[in-house]
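agent> Task received from the user: take the single chain below, predict its 3D structure, and emit structure tokens. No templates, no multimer pairing.
agent> Plan: (1) validate residues, (2) run structure prediction, (3) serialize to tokens, (4) report one or two observations.
agent> Step 1 OK, no nonstandard residues flagged.
tool_call: predict_structure(input=
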Amino acid sequence: MLWVKTFHILFVVSWFAGLFYLPRIYVNLAQTGDPGTRAVLLGMAGRLYRFMTPLAILALILGLALWLGYGIGQGQGWMHAKLLAVLALIVFHLACRHHLRALTTGSCRHGHRYFRWFNEIPVLLLLLILILVVVKPF
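)
tool_result: status=success, residues=138
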């Protein structure tokens, strides 16, 4: 199970790297008016999303394997809260896809300020998940 845990952590860290960077690309997309720059940023965003999605899936599969293998947190509040935070993370990931499609088609109605705030969501979710897993406050 230590190998599973090691790779789970690796894929979670890699997934978060994408979740931290992709909204930053959206900030730049919302600020640029240059078609060439826009094309480059959309290409970067698309490739990053396609790269981080399998990382997310692997992180989730290995996390599920850990949960079932160790039986950790069964009936404990911290684990239920963590699973809810992971669900929020999945929703955020899907929201990134929605924004990417809107930016690609030119139908996005959000400006750079929105994406600056949007960019903070994974940081807050990571902090919450770390506190729940390490401190186990309840």
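agent> Step 4: summary for the user.
The helical segments are 2-31, 35-70, 77-105, 112-118, 121-134.
agent> Done.
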